């Protein structure tokens, strides 16, 4: 009984804050000035507004709690199907192997990709609910402000669907925000190569380290420029080129160190840009880098599980609905508005080929270690840029400014001379950049 009371109080508080943070006020009827009925001013009466707010909060609490419980039951049903599938598959194995084969894992078969995606969302909602409970116990005074500044921390049943703003729909707004994130990241990378961090001025003994960092960022900026302007560096071909350049960093003879698997080696501007793009259109600009990196790693874990499920269960991408295809591609920063199903299927197939199938074949031939996080960060970064350059991207002014120069030969100004960059020289420069980082 006590547990139900706590859950009801929690749901009510979430419903109240969700109602106030998602602008879901019920419009009250107002009387026209020309009406013969005298205007009582009820439309602006604070008592009526308060009553509407309380009613909306209760409705949101009731509907959200019911939906949360319904989702929980459906997740249990899906997991039961997976366990039955594992038990059936293990029945033909020797007794010594049955226990290990029956161990539950989210990527187990016996379910569709839609059900797997639902499981992933349910897991994310449970994590959000646990965070809210933790905050309500240890920092109750900060909970309303947390909901106000971070509305994405609410479980999905309590969050509103993204409303269209003017002529723009959900995917237009996401595309617009991601294009801006790409531009801001490029500006930050270029600035890091030319402007020393403000905090470095406080340390008189760190000038050498700051100088080396700026030199690495300058090489990274030129390497990115060469990759983006190489021949056929668009679509799946460009993604393959990026992984080919980073091949010696992704596949190593020795087990990669923690700074490489945890993405500590990835420059801060890129981590921040990925964080903004992955959480578009709502993202916080004030989180420290280590928290953004943690969010990116969590999303990479979800993407990895989804990739492995699609490949291991031989899911037919042609059988997925348009909504599922859009969600799957958007999660990987692939494409944007105006894509056909065929384009999304081809792009997703290329992603799975580069991130799962090719690494499995290569590891089967040679005793190598595969850094999947670094490979997926490279793919995410490339696809974000490729989507921003597409003529169907929602953000158009920056593209118009550089119209006609997107696919021209790249050049850089060195000592007042123009030096053409070719993609063949990028791999050696990239290797030097990683060696300096070590």
Describe what you observe in this structure.
The protein has two domains: 2-27 and 45-158; 170-437, no CATH class. The strands form two sheets. The chain has a two-stranded antiparallel ribbon. It has a two-stranded antiparallel sheet with strand order 3-4. Helix 6 packs antiparallel against helix 11 (268-278), helix 6 (170-192) packs across helix 15 and helix 12 (289-312) crosses helix 15 (372-389). The chain is globular, with a radius of gyration of 26 Å. It has helices at 2-21, 46-90, 95-101, 113-138, 143-149, 170-192, 207-229, 235-245, 247-250, 258-261, 268-278, 289-312, 322-331, 341-365, 372-389, 397-401, 426-437; strands at 251-252, 369-370, 411-414, 417-420. It has 438 residues and is mainly alpha-helical. Strand 3 (411-414) and strand 4 (417-420) form a beta hairpin.
What's the helix and strand layout?
Layout: H1 2-21, H2 46-90, H3 95-101, H4 113-138, H5 143-149, H6 170-192, H7 207-229, H8 235-245, H9 247-250, E1 251-252, H10 258-261, H11 268-278, H12 289-312, H13 322-331, H14 341-365, E2 369-370, H15 372-389, H16 397-401, E3 411-414, E4 417-420, H17 426-437
Antiparallel strand pairs: 1-2, 3-4
Helix pairs in contact: 1-2, 2-3, 2-4, 4-12, 6-7, 6-11, 6-15, 7-17, 8-14, 8-15, 11-12, 12-14, 12-15, 13-14
């Amino acid at each position: 009984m006590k547990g139900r009371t706590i859950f009801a109080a929690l749901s009510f508080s979430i419903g109240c804050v969700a109602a106030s943070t998602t602008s879901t006020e019920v419009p009250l009827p107002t009387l026209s000035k020309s009406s013969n009925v005298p205007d009582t001013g009820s439309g602006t009466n604070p008592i009526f507004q308060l009553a509407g707010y309380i009613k909306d909060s209760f409705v949101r609490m009731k509907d959200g709690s019911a939906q949360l419980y319904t989702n929980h039951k459906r997740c249990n049903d899906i997991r039961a199907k997976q366990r039955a599938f594992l038990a059936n598959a293990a029945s033909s194995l020797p007794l010594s192997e049955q226990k290990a084969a029956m161990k539950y894992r989210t990527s187990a078969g016996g379910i569709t990709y839609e059900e797997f995606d639902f499981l992933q969302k349910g897991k994310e909602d449970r994590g959000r609910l646990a965070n809210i409970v933790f905050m309500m116990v240890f920092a109750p005074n900060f909970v309303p402000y947390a909901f106000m500044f971070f509305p994405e921390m609410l479980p999905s049943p309590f969050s509103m669907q993204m409303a269209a703003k003017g002529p723009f729909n959900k995917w237009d707004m996401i595309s617009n925000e991601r294009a801006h994130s790409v531009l801001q990241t490029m500006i930050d990378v270029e600035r890091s190569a030319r402007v020393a961090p403000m905090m470095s001025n406080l340390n008189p003994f760190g000038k050498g380290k700051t100088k080396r960092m700026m030199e690495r960022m300058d090489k990274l900026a030129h390497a990115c420029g060469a990759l983006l302007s190489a021949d056929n560096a668009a679509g799946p071909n460009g993604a393959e080129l990026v992984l080919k350049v980073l091949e010696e960093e992704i596949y190593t003879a020795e087990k990669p160190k923690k700074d490489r698997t945890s993405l500590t080696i990835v420059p801060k501007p890129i981590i921040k840009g990925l964080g903004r793009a992955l959480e578009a259109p709502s993202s916080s600009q004030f989180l420290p880098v280590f928290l953004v990196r943690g969010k990116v790693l969590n999303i990479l874990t979800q993407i990895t599980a989804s990739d492995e499920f699609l490949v291991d269960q031989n899911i037919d991408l042609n059988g997925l609905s348009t909504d599922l295809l859009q969600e799957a591609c958007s999660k990987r920063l692939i494409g944007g508005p105006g894509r056909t199903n065929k384009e999304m299927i081809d792009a997703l197939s290329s992603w799975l080929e580069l991130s799962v199938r090719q690494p499995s074949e290569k590891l089967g031939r040679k005793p190598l270690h595969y850094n999947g996080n670094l490979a997926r960060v490279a793919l995410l970064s490339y696809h974000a840029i490729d989507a921003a350059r597409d003529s169907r991207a929602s953000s158009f002014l920056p593209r118009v400014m550089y119209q006609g120069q997107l696919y021209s030969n790249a050049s850089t100004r060195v000592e007042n001379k123009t030096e053409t960059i070719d993609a063949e020289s990028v791999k050696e420069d990239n290797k030097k950049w990683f060696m300096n980082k070590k």
